Amino acid sequence: MRELEERIRRDGVVRDGGVLKVDSFLNHQCDVALFDRMGAEWATLFKGKRVDRILTIESSGIGLACCAARHFGDVPVVFAKKAQSINLDDDLLTTTVYSFTKRREFPVIVSRRFLHQGDHVLLVDDFLANGRAMEGLIELCDKAGATVEGIAIAIEKGFQDGGGRLRRRGYDVRSLAIVTRMDAGTGTVEFA
Q: Is 20 annotated as a binding residue?
């Protein structure tokens, strides 16, 4: 998606260690109009796929998932929580994922009330790097008996193997911007 690539070039900040900060428009401050256009693009890319619900992980994927849901017939959005709380039911789907940005493992939890056997699910997130978050969401879908129809990503770090690994496993991964190279010294970002 050319608009997203240009926005990354203009407003993104490249940091050492493979970090791309896009917090001015994607995952701290949200450009909702851009999110809506991204949702429309994903609806086009996944046209013909059955999507009963959208699943994401807290917190950066929630805004994207909600905007995308509007373009899939206002399907429900479910987000996996990263911590147990007293508000959660006892009947839970759980797994553990490693976070690239937080550099630690954490639990991800979804109530079985919101992810069911026979559901057709679109996974949505802001970044795909090593693929651990998506693998965790796939595991939750497997435990529920739901089918993953596709994986919608805003920004994929193509120089890491998460996207490639998921595609080799047969998942339909559609990333709106695939970063092939970043240079913290010059601040440049290159795309596929």
A: yes
User: Residue 131 annotated as binding?
Assistant: yes
DSSP conformation class of 81: B
129 is an annotated ligand-binding site residue: yes
The parent domain of residue 95 ranges over 32-180
Low-confidence ranges of the chain (pLDDT < 70): 84-88, 100
Residue 106 domain-assigned?
Answer: yes
Q: Is 130 annotated as a binding residue?
A: yes
Per the domain annotation, does 15 fall within a domain?
A: no
Q: Give one DSSP letter per residue of the chain, joined into a string.
A: -HHHHHHHHHH-EEETTTEEE-TTTTSSS--HHHHHHHHHHHHHHTTTS--SEEEEETTHHHHHHHHHHHTTTS--EEEEBSS--TTS-SSEEEEEEEETTTTEEEEEEEETTSS-TT-EEEEEEEEESSSHHHHHHHHHHHHHT-EEEEEEEEEEETTSSHHHHHHHTT--EEEEEEEEEEETTTTEEEE-
87 has binding-site annotation: no
What is the C-alpha separation between 161 and 131, in angstroms, rounded?
Answer: 8
Give the pTM. 0.96
Domain count, the chain: 1
Q: What is the pLDDT of residues 62-107, one digit of tens each?
A: 999 999 999 999 999 999 998 766 666 778 999 999 876 778 898 9
Residue 142 lies in a domain: yes
